[in-house]
Design a protein that fits this description.
This protein is of the alpha+beta class. The strands form five sheets. Strands 1, 2, 3, 4, 5 and 6 form a six-stranded mixed β-sheet that branches. It has a six-stranded mixed β-sheet with strand order 11-10-9-14-23-20. Strands 8-15-16-18-24 form a five-stranded mixed beta barrel. It is 18% helix and 41% strand. The radius of gyration is 23 Å and the shape is globular. A hairpin with a 2-residue loop joins strand 16 and strand 17. It is built from nine helices and 25 strands.
Amino acid sequence: MIARYHAPFAEQGSHTIDADIANRLLKVALGKGGDYADLFFEYSVSGSYIYDEQILKSARRAVSMGLGVRVIAPLGVSMRDIPSRYPVPVESLDVEGEAKKALLERADRAARASDPRVIRVDASFAESLRDILIANSLGHMARDRQPLIRFGVRVIAEDGGNRQSGSSGGGGRMGLDYFDEKTPEAHAEQAVQQALVMLDAREAPAGEMDVVLGPGDSGILLHEAVGHGLEADFNRKKTSNYSDRVGEEVASELCTVVDDASLPGSRGSINVDDEGQLPARSVLIEGGVLNGYMQDRHSADFFGTTPDGHGRRQSFRSHPMPRMTNTMLIGGTDAPEDVIRSVNRGVYAKKFGGGQVDISNGDFVFSLTEGYLIEDGRVTAPLKGVNLIGNGPDAMRKVVMLGHDFEVSDGIWTCGKDGQSVPVGVGCPTIKIAGMTVGGTQMAGG
């Protein structure tokens, strides 16, 4: 299966929407009044492949195209120069479907050959190329072509009636060159290893104890429990725990939190936001002190500041709102092994599953898909049924050690907010939190 991709907005001289057309449409949009208007053109092609039980169960291709108009003195518009954070040839989406099926087959073969206890393997591959054009009544016009891929493997292993699952996935704003760095076989090996480890997992302890978060993937806790509260619309409405607290100490002095759209190839990176603003690195918390919020145009007008490139929307059918891109806790100076060694009894959180967060106060519950017991400064038994229960701002104040092993998670995360979903990235080093409630089935002293 092959579908040639044609980018109607991408190249000067070949696009179907130019500055003259944009000016005329903006005049119509502002014809009955208004202080601001913008146009959001989008052309997106996507594909997905699901390989289940050694059969290609589904192959899907979709095209979406449309225009969103928002009206909040028209001026002439001119094209803005934007950075290039994910250069990728369009041809990567034009590769035959058989080549993508072969990637899934490689993962399936590798997982099944790795251990006889593997009884089921599922693999998936999804890709999209989103072509957007934004024009507004401030005179700005920008185009962007946003590639995105995601690959995933899930396995089930069984031993004596005990079944456990493992998974691995990744991707980002790139093409099939992703597999030059992380092969299907590597994902299969990681998924199998997790499933086999969990076959020996013991019931999780329960109670208050130290928790160590592993690098990279654990950034999702920061994203959910802290990041959403730093989006400006929640603070404009005063529904965030961080409302009216700029300049106050809100975390341990070890903590500096940034949102950075400029990471090359990362899942949350963007060259331009969906309001035509050029995003950069925003320092949200510095040395434990709240610096500011992530702004879109509406919230920036309210706070009397400038938009900083966080206006994002799911598609032309949606309105923009402040959203995270790549949200990260910057690394510290501690050796990761020293962080583990400092814990007498606690939990090492390596991979996260689902979770729930109350934005108004930061209360959260997260489940772990891979976690381990720490005993006498050593990582020992794998644990099952682990839940981390706490409060985002409180957990940030309890950060007492930060590793120098900062990592950005491989590109798997999608963030939902008010019915809209956008791709995001997360990152962090090894983190020690002094005291968090662990939900399990055994008392902490048992």
